[in-house]
From TrEMBL:
<dbReference type="GO" id="GO:0004657">
    <property type="term" value="F:proline dehydrogenase activity"/>
</dbReference>
<keyword id="KW-0520">NAD</keyword>
<dbReference type="InterPro" id="IPR015590">
    <property type="entry name" value="Aldehyde_DH_dom"/>
</dbReference>
<dbReference type="GO" id="GO:0010133">
    <property type="term" value="P:L-proline catabolic process to L-glutamate"/>
</dbReference>
<dbReference type="Pfam" id="PF00171">
    <property type="entry name" value="Aldedh"/>
</dbReference>
<dbReference type="InterPro" id="IPR005931">
    <property type="entry name" value="P5CDH/ALDH4A1"/>
</dbReference>
<dbReference type="InterPro" id="IPR016160">
    <property type="entry name" value="Ald_DH_CS_CYS"/>
</dbReference>
<keyword id="KW-0560">Oxidoreductase</keyword>
<comment type="pathway">
    <text>Amino-acid degradation; L-proline degradation into L-glutamate; L-glutamate from L-proline: step 2/2.</text>
</comment>
<dbReference type="InterPro" id="IPR050485">
    <property type="entry name" value="Proline_metab_enzyme"/>
</dbReference>
<dbReference type="InterPro" id="IPR016162">
    <property type="entry name" value="Ald_DH_N"/>
</dbReference>
<comment type="similarity">
    <text>Belongs to the aldehyde dehydrogenase family.</text>
</comment>
<feature type="domain" description="Aldehyde dehydrogenase">
    <location>
        <begin position="60"/>
        <end position="511"/>
    </location>
</feature>
<protein>
    <recommendedName>
        <fullName>L-glutamate gamma-semialdehyde dehydrogenase</fullName>
        <ecNumber>1.2.1.88</ecNumber>
    </recommendedName>
</protein>
<keyword id="KW-0642">Proline metabolism</keyword>
<dbReference type="InterPro" id="IPR016161">
    <property type="entry name" value="Ald_DH/histidinol_DH"/>
</dbReference>
<dbReference type="GO" id="GO:0003842">
    <property type="term" value="F:L-glutamate gamma-semialdehyde dehydrogenase activity"/>
</dbReference>
């Protein structure tokens, strides 16, 4: 702390721009899109102040136009990862001891750079590299990332303000130290904001981080590094390395100073990393913090009293926005039989009206899925649904990989509540509907609850008693529970995000709870009049 008890600017959510026809933001983002699309980039490793081009490269291609070459990113060797550790630990000396307001200023500046001069570049990079339509890019790479940065700064000061009781003899203080070592941040392809948040939340609290972005998100990850640099982030505080995830994890998790894992991605990868940490537990200086937000099988359940049009809209938006590639995307739906005809008609009408194609054409609601492996997996499940006796395709069911990884938004109907697509996370524009008998509400709540995941879920009901019953019966079925809404679209500062069971450690990214994981408090008791005699009064004659 410098010479003052400083207050940070109050965090506010970044307003979402509309990008409606004729707006200046639409023109600006399309210009940025064209510029990026028609140039080539080389993404280096960022280790300390160095941008390292290793020569061992992999290409980057837009999912909606996979033959177009955006450039290449460089991959790390074992030696580069070891260098990143050494560099991060050297940077830690100064960063961990820097006054908090200096750290805060770096992240507040980064937020404003994204809100202003970098907004269209980061949105265009996300549209191109991850195939998001402009609205999905804006709410992710601009607004959510800005919100993470602003709100985390405010939460940090709230933590620092939390101090123990003192009395006239002794002053008790809590000092919120960073962890002793480095944090390993591993991020998914689907949110540029998560990619930016996972290394920066620990760094804000005084930690140093080594960040491994997803191969499919490197294109916008580079813009994040550019922003951090421009914001004055000292060299070595956040280092970015790409390459073989197994090798990178072996080196980082195998190191004595590994102090924490900040992960978002699939359940299997996280469980394997946890296991690897367990196997190394005797080698560490401290017990590492393990934070992971993982897969989901998110639900919508409608009570017979719900409004069919509202239910249909929750499905159309909740299941298909960003091609169903949100961890919160609705992928299993439970409807009363009496409601099906009406909901089906609305959803089919919606799906048939969706336009699919490149995000550059802003009339497209749907674009491509992230890569070929995802495309192939989705096509396999769709084909199975066409053949299985307990499933049928209601709408969609086509796919085409000739230009991009395009999967038609697909609704499957099943009479088997344990049908594969009711249980397996597919991570694409496929939603499965199960119809229950109208008088089987309680039994259906039990079915919904019976899942290995517990990330998001929504109940739609006009009946207050039914809504209350579902809220109680499904209390462990979702970390983010929605009443009369779709199960997606959590906003930082408003709906802290995360789930339990197979969905994660539920440390709620973008909330104060997450920041607590990146500190190791030290209690300092200072006594003013120090005793000079060991004898207590009870020892007297
Ligand atoms: P993924 O698990 O394939 O990859 C995530 C990250 O892990 C990537 O950086 C990847 O390179 C890395 N990785 C893969 N194998 C690894 C290994 N052996 N060692 C170390 N790292 C390894 O996930 P994805 O496809 O990028 O993202 C989709 C998944 O993420 C879905 O399961 C989704 O539900 C989940 N997700 C969850 C949340 C949440 O908040 N719960 C948010 C976003 C995404």
């Amino acid at each position: 702390m410098g010479k003052g008890v400083f207050q940070v600017p109050q965090a506010v959510n970044e307003p979402v721009k509309s990008y409606a026809p004729g707006t200046p933001e639409r023109e600006a983002v399309l210009k940025a899109y064209k510029e990026l699309y028609n140039s080539k980039v080389e993404v280096p490793l960022y280790i300390g102040g160095e941008e390292i081009k290793t020569g061992d490269t992999a290409p980057m291609n837009p999912p909606h136009d996979h033959q177009h070459h955006l450039g290449d990113y460089h991959k790390a060797s074992k030696e580069h990862v070891e260098k990143a550790i050494k560099t991060a630990l050297e940077a830690r000396e100064k960063w961990a001891n820097l006054e908090w307001e200096q750290r805060a200023a770096v992240f507040l500046k980064a937020a404003e750079l994204i809100a202003g001069p970098y907004r269209y570049k980061i949105n265009a990079a996300t549209m191109i590299g991850q195939s998001k339509n402009i609205f999905q890019a804006e709410i992710d790479s601009a607004c959510e990332l800005i919100d993470f940065l602003r709100f985390n700064v405010e939460y940090m000061t709230r933590i620092y303000e939390e101090q123990p009781e003192s009395n006239s003899d002794a002053w008790n203080r809590l000092e919120y130290r960073p962890l002793e070592g480095f944090v390993y941040a591993v991020t998914p392809f689907n949110f540029t904001a998560i990619a930016g948040n996972l290394p920066s939340a620990p760094a804000l609290m005084g930690n140093v981080a080594i960040w491994k972005p997803s191969d499919s998100q490197v294109y916008s990850a580079q813009v994040i590094m550019e922003v951090f640099k421009e914001a004055g982030m000292p060299d070595g505080v956040i280092n970015m390395v790409m390459g073989d995830p197994k090798m990178i994890s072996d080196v980082l998790i195998g190191h004595r100073d590994f102090a924490g894992l900040h992960f978002t991605g699939s359940t299997t990868v996280f469980k394997n990393l946890w296991k690897q940490i367990g196997e190394n537990i005797h080698n560490y200086r401290s017990y590492p913090r393990i934070v992971g937000e993982t897969g989901g099988k998110d639900f919508i359940i409608a009570h017979p009293s719900a409004r069919p049009k509202q239910v249909a809209t929750a499905i159309s938006r909740g299941a298909f926005e960003f091609q169903g590639q949100k961890c919160s995307a609705a992928s299993r739906v439970y409807l009363p039989k009496s409601m099906w005809e009406e909901v089906k008609n609305y959803v089919v009408e919606d799906v048939k009206s969706f336009k699919m194609g490149s995000p550059e054409d802003m009339s497209n609601f749907i674009t491509a899925v992230i890569h070929e492996a995802s495309f192939d997996k989705l096509a396999k499940f769709i084909d199975a649904a066409k053949n299985d006796s307990d499933a049928e395709i209601v709408v969609g069911g086509n796919y085409d990989k000739s230009k991009g990884w395009f999967i038609e938004p697909t609704v499957i109907l099943t009479d088997n509540p344990k049908y594969s697509t009711m249980c397996t996370e597919l991570f694409g524009p496929v939603v499965t509907v199960f119809l229950y008998e109208d008088d089987q509400w309680e039994e259906t709540l039990k079915l919904v609850d019976d899942s290995e995941y517990a990330l998001t879920g929504a109940i739609l009901s006009q009946d207050r008693y039914a809504a209350a019953e579902a809220t109680k019966a499904l209390q462990n079925a979702a970390g983010n529970f929605y009443i009369n809404d779709k199960p997606t679209g959590a906003v930082v500062g408003q709906q802290p995000f995360g789930g339990a069971r197979g969905s994660g450690t539920n440390d709620k990214a973008g909330s104060i709870l997450n920041l607590y994981r990146w500190i190791s408090p030290r209690t300092i008791k200072e006594t003013f009049v120090t005793p000079t005699d060991y004898r207590y009064p009870f020892l007297g004659e």
